[in-house]
Amino acid sequence: MKLSSNQNKALVGLLAVFLLVMGCNQGKDNREAKTGMTNTVVHLPYYNDGSFTPHWLLPNSEEEKAFHKIPDFKLVNQLGDSVTQDTFKNKIYITDFFFTSCPGICPKMTANMIKVQEEFKETSEVLLLSHTVTPSIDSVSVLKRYADKNKVLADKWHLVTGDKSEIYDLGRNQYFVENDLGVPKDVNDFLHTENFLLIDKNRHIRGIYNGLNRASIAQLVLDVNALIME
Length: 230
Fold this sequence. Notes:
single chain; alpha/beta; Glutaredoxin; five-stranded mixed beta sheet; two-stranded antiparallel ribbon; 6 helices; 37% helix
């Protein structure tokens, strides 16, 4: 059977498309073989020290289960209620460290945390946790006034006070919120940082963000949504 000139052109075109598709698939297979990567969703990294070196772990793996977790704690919120890890069971939470009389970075941090609260106010699995670094001054009543002034939703955002050594240990040795890595400090050295931390449902640190930076807060919102989908 003799093909016309137009039929020959069409056949050549189909053959070219077929070869292009096969080549793309072969390239994809080669990339996956070399990198181990597929089209699966990439999860947020995990962190376990102040260098914030990312660790790429598979959720629910044995390695993930053995990875650094925020330990148990017991603090008191602006309503006088106890706040422990049970408060955040099966919850994602964003945490920071502040004090109510701070004239510098804290008002901007609080304003940005309010934006995060607004973003997730209807999402029950997301909570906020702010630790005062001046617990001797920021009593329950002081935190309550601060909460009322800033329209803090009591069932969404916990402003907590408690034992200073516990709060400072959490900040420095568990959340790693300070930037001056390697500088020895104790409870007498003031804890002051603009960082927000993202904690997953298994107490793992999954992100660190500049609480003063609009782009960083936008990334935090994206990452919280990614954790919700994880």
